[in-house]
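REQUEST ID: PR-0412
SUBMITTED BY: lab tech R.K.
PRIORITY: routine
TASK: structure prediction, single protein chain
INPUT:
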Amino acid sequence: MSLDIHTAIYKPLRGGTYIPLPKFLASKKALINMKFKSEKRRNEDVQCFKLCIARVLNPVKDHSERITRQLEKQAEALTFDGISFPMKLKDIKKFEQQNPQVSVNVLGYEDKKIFPLRISEMVEREHDVNLLLLEDKHFVLINDLSRLLSHQMSNHKEKRFFCMRCLNSLTKKEVLDKHKGSCEKHDCVKLRMPEKGSILEFKNFKHSMHVPIVVYANFKFLTKPIESCKPNSEYSCTEQYQKHEPSGFCFNIVCDGKKLKPVLYTKKSTDENIRDIFCKHQKKRN
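STATUS: complete
OUTPUT:
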């Protein structure tokens, strides 16, 4: 009967044009915001990605944010065949393929929250580069990941080691290396716990379905030790050392809000099958 068409211009994420650091990020002292001395060149800059990579490969002690002629020459040593600027996120993989010594991770920033935008699939490369993309158009070099992310984890000031895939923090590099072995097998996930004092509520009771009969059941188990082969310490595994055998159960039936007499049963002999007895009691009730 009718057709509505909505159109929008697709603008892929890309980095270019100098942006001053927000006050919150500048206070972290964890970022290097590359900039030209000339304000004109600063405003026309679309190669912030290239210059950030060049700074990682050619570090300096003082004024690392300055873009010098020497740094521009060093940046030309990188390969960007078939890649146009401003740099798009989807083209970073092509850059990594052309420059096998570098892997690049990109984080995003919004409302004082930092989150992953792109995590490199390339591991164990000579240079791991971490970048922050501001306002979807300007790359900034992260030189201290612990300082940048610690506020999202705790109020403690000691150095933390972060996994780029899940952004969880660990206290030691050895623990981080062990964590990466298992984390790399899964998709990138960031655990986010609810804020202190938050409450989960359900208000739309009009949408709920009435259930006339509800059974509340609980089993009791005995734990018995079992013998198993010694696991291989070189692999992650689950060691079984106990077997849970049901020793009894209790259940209560609520019918239209009225509670029936609860049923409690305890195993009387080793030959009894508690599961079968539970099912028989249910059939009798029905």
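NOTES: The two ends are 51 Å apart (CA to CA).
REVIEWED BY: pending
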